Amino acid sequence: MTSLDDMAAGIAACIRCPALVASRTHTVPGEFPNGAELLLVGEGPGAHEDLAGRPFVGRSGALLDSLLLEVRMPRQEVAVANVVKCRPPQNRAPTRVEVDNCRPWLDQQLSRSAPRVVVAMGSTAVAWFFGRNSRISDLRGAAHQVDGRHVVATYHPSAALRFGPKGAPRAALHDDLALAVSLCRRT
Ligand code: URA
Fold first, then answer.
1. Ligand 1 pocket mutation pick from 59, 82, 84 by most atoms within 8 angstroms of CB
2. Cβ atoms within 10 A of the Cβ of 182, count?
3. What separation in Å is there between the alpha carbon of 87 and the centre of ligand 1?
4. CA-to-CA distance for 92 and 185, rounded, in angstroms?
5. Measuring CA to CA, which residue among 173, 166, 162 is closest to residue 137?
6. Which residues line ligand 1 (CB under 6 A)?
7. What pLDDT, in 10s, does the model give residues 114-164?
8. pTM for the complete prediction?
9. Which of 114, 76, 84, 65 is nearest to 11 (CA)?
10. Which residues 6+ apart lie within 8 Å of 181 measured at CB?
11. CA distance to 36, 51, 69, 71, 81, per residue, from 77 (Å)
């Protein structure tokens, strides 16, 4: 077992958030293919992810897969995780306490998988990396150095779905993923 697999077992046994423990079907630790240089971070599992135990397998995941194809980065080569590893009921955003309880897991995933580039998707992930007063519109379109690695802030795929295929969030997400991939490929 790799240390990331060990961590998935630790996450499955985590009981720090009683409300989420009571409602979850599966924990969703994330996926870390060997050698992945790019890590995408979302907010938390939705209903599909809770059932499957895998991140981004619902509608947002399908859009993410298409966007990754457009920027020529196969999903199988990309690590994918969330700020919280258990589904918040009724698709609510995770609370500040839940985010804080879960923080050590993503911290450890970052240090053990050591991605070259992270894409923080949506306000919860962007707040995790840049602080609670950060705004996606101010940060996106550029790579920022956070704790010695490139972090690109962008919209969540659900925002891209909400605004439709011709909406600004989809175009921004595409361009931000393309930027992240170009940073990974830079020698
Ligand atoms: N939304 C997220 O933020 N993460 C998932 O894994 C699925 C939907």
1. 82
2. 12
3. 9
4. 36
5. 173
6. 42-46, 49, 55-56, 58, 60, 82
7. 999 999 999 999 999 999 999 999 999 999 999 999 999 999 999 999 999
8. 0.97
9. 84
10. 38, 71, 72, 73
11. 6, 23, 11, 13, 13
